TrEMBL record:
Protein name stated in the entry: Uncharacterized conserved protein, MAPEG superfamily
InterPro entries assigned: MAPEG-like_dom_sf, Membr-assoc_MAPEG
Compartments, record wording: Membrane
Pfam family membership, one: MAPEG
Species assigned in the record: Gemmobacter megaterium
Transmembrane spans: 61-78, 90-107, 113-130
Keyword vocabulary terms for this entry: Membrane, Transmembrane, Transmembrane helix
UniProt superkingdom: Bacteria
Disulfide bond found in the keyword field: no
Amino acid sequence: MTPELTALTLAALLQIVQFGLFAVPANIELGTGYTSGPRDTAPKRPLSPRTARMQRAMNNHFEGLILFAIAALVVTLSGQSSATTAACGWIYLAARIAYIPAYAFGWTPWRSAIWAVGFAATTIMLLASLF
């Protein structure tokens, strides 16, 4: 397996961890009656700020993971894996790991800077596959 695909696999596992980091407190705060129901109405009380941040961090990773998966697959399937693309894969993963506490604890402007590092790593991988 290429380093890029290894980083992608670990990023997918990180998404599962993020789901747990959000779902457990959300179930405690909203109750399983609401979270296991159809959610046709708004909850009786809002999520706590930290749980809401964990939901937004999880959703953000879903969005970023799509582009990173494309980059990792393009690099691997085109046979263009290199030290640069491998490093970008690991940088993306490290940024996504750092993003979780940055969002959870409201580290501004660091959360945005960490996000930008992961996005740049993905962009460089895509550009490297073209040139």
